[in-house]
Amino acid sequence: MSAMFKITLPDGSVREVAPGTTPADIAAAIGPGLAKAAMAARVDGEVRDIMRPFEGDAQLALITAKDEADALELVRHDYAHILAEAVQKLFPGTQITFGPATDDGFYYDFAPKDRPFTEDDLPAIEAEMRRIIAADEPLIREVWRREDLIARWNAQGETFKAEWAAELPDGEELTVYRAGRGEDAWLDMCRGPHLASTGKVAADAFKLTRVSGAYWRGDQKNAMLSRIYGTGWLNKKQLDAHLHRLEEAAKRDHRKLGQEMDLFHLQAEAHGSVFWHPNGFVIWRELEAYMRRAIDAAGYQEVKTPQVMDARQWEASGHWGKYRENMFVIPDEVPNTDDDGPIVSNDAEWMALKPMNCPAHVLIFRQGIKSYRDLPMRLYENGCCHRNEPHGALHGLMRVRQFTQDDAHIFCREDQIVDEVRRFCELADRIYRDFGFTYSIKLALRPENRFGTEEMWDQAEAELRNAVIEAGLATEEYGWEELPGEGAFYAPKLEWHLTDAIGRTWQVGTIQSDRVLPERLDASYVGEDGERHRPIMLHRAIFGSYERFIGILIEHFAGRLPVWLAPTQAVVATIVSDADDYAREVEGKLKAAGIRADADLRNEKINYKVREHSLAKVPHLLVVGKREAEEGTVAVRTLGREGQRVMPIEEAIATLTAEATPPDLR
Questions:
Q1: What SS3 state is found at 408?
Q2: Which of 30, 307, 568, 579 is deepest in the core (most CB within 10 A)?
Q3: Which residues form the TGS domain (predicted)?
């Protein structure tokens, strides 16, 4: 008799099972409810198919819908698999490539035989997917020999799959999933895991959303493919909630609102750079003034550093080797003026537009001798940076090539780190609360590709962790979580993830504890012992970038910005021309009180004016007619409220002045 395997369950109990036993068998032995609910298994920490037999003694945890993150990953992977099968059945000759799960769904890339897919194809594909789900085809994992798999793909005309199979590392197990049984079974090369059958996903919990182009393996030199996106969930209720969020997000799209409110625009002549209009730049200036008050009070010194630095400086910092593909490089020579000759010679020295401010701040720190008494030294810059983002990745204000960071670097001693990080946590908390955000904090730990010793990383991670604990933020209330492998190449970091009005999260603020850059750029201070010591460099930002933070604010408030941020805070609108002089008088008083106000004296009906200024998201409309002029009153209409309030002009000014005061000055 074969030796029995010992399977340890989460409660510590051990079951002895024969070879060939699967996690599904154990679920069935525990009870029919668990057998029905179990979707997959975590075996020795690895998520596996529930029908995959054990290979020896193991730790087992069964995955159900209650394990939502794992469950969503599984069903979305299955929806992608079912999508690919449906497409190939409806459009014979289509080649398949890859189809991963995403944060809210899935996609699959195809090489169509005749024409690219369009959104008109999606209803038929959805119907075929539901037919496959209803058929409840078993999903069977198979391990293939490389040469057999390549031959199979080539015989079927699947050149993309054959290419990928040929390039997978030697010794890697090549697995195929078979949907159904017999000669007509559909095959896909996939690491898995998958659910036990196609019927384990809900037929009413997915929707195909759009079609786009995508290059094979992400390289624009390769073939263009058709990518079909979908969203997939555990049940229809989750799907409906997600579709509602998408609908709400479309209404809040900062690009649409930015046009309606005349805030900014983007155009091809400056890919990824923003043209700020007067209205939009009012928001920018208010944020900049707010942040300056905050950092002045927190003991920062503001600096300004060059946009362009020599490549040798970026080599010394490590960015030239680790980050060069994201940098704009510039030849340090006068360009050739001969139209027929090359613009740049091969002899040019290279410079680069700065993608970040930190090396320049080290150079400021290095000017003159620094003593331990000078620390902490907090250098702040509204620093304009450039990063060479791919054109296809650009997205309104959210992902740009030119951006301005609310950037600062704190140079401090070892014994000051925890206190400085704690102070920053408290500053960030106060600022995010001023804008009405809740947030969670994550600690991003060392990545595989990094500078520095293990001891340096151990110490830096512990310091950030301890500072959050001291600030009282390492709790479930603040979503405290540690993220292995997510740190920068030179430092671990704390991340602030804001939650907006419709439940989306945005990673915004960070602080990083860095021992690498001061070493590489030879920053030092004289200690109490008279010897040279390396400072610790804390990289920190709260808005992240002004561009992205403004985009987030526009979407969070659906354009209805708090009065202190609104480009125009009040409009005085006339009902009849007899009130024009009074409207100008009211406008003057509002401006004298520091309120950004305009007068609308056009010969238009008042309902037209109300609609137009509501679309522009003006917070307050002060309507005046003959009666208001005689009585010295205004009828105040507030955006988002029904009706109007009639009040004396002095009372209206006092009310608006209070609302227009930034939160830190109230």
A1: strand
A2: 579
A3: 3-64
Q: Say if residues 557 and 617 touch (Cβ distance below 8 Å).
A: no
Q: What is the largest CA-CA distance in the chain?
A: 105
The pair of structure tokens assigned to 604 is 């238009």
Q: How far apart are the C-alpha atoms of 260 and 239, rounded to whole Å?
A: 30
Flag whether the pTM goes above 0.90. no
- Which is more confidently placed, 184 or 570? 570
Residue 486 has pLDDT above 90, yes or no: no
> What is the fold of 69-244?
Threonyl-tRNA Synthetase; Chain A, domain 2 (3.30.980)
Q: Which CATH class is domain 5-64?
A: alpha beta
- For 78, residues 6+ apart whose C-beta sits below 8 A from its C-beta are 139, 194, 195, 198, 200, 201
CATH number for the domain formed by residue range(s) 563-665: 3.40.50.800
| 613 labelled binding-site residue | no
DSSP string, 41-85: EEETTEEEETTSPP-SSEEEEEE-TTSHHHHHHHHHHHHHHHHHH
409 annotated ligand-binding residue: yes
Q: Whole-angstrom Cα distance, residue 170 to residue 68?
A: 34
* Span 198-218, average pLDDT: 94
Residues 6+ apart with CB under 8 A from 151: none
384, 402 Cβ separation under 8 angstroms = yes
- Name the DSSP letter for residue 190: -
Residue 350, burial from CB neighbour count under 10 angstroms (0-12, 13-18, 19+): middle
Cβ(387)–Cβ(327) below 8 Å: yes
Could you tell me the residue ranges of all domains in the chain?
Answer: 5-64, 69-244, 266-334+348-557, 563-665
pLDDT at residue 336 tops 90: no
CATH number of 266-334+348-557: 3.30.930.10
Give the model confidence (pLDDT) of 40-54 as tens digits.
999 999 999 999 999
Query: String of b and e for 77-110 (b: at least 16 CB within 10 Å)?
Result: bbbbbbbbbbbbeebeebbbbbbebeebbbbbbb
Q: Which residues are catalytic?
A: 358, 387, 405, 407, 409, 493, 539
pLDDT of 1 > 60? The answer is no
Helical H segments across 480-534, by residue range: 516-520
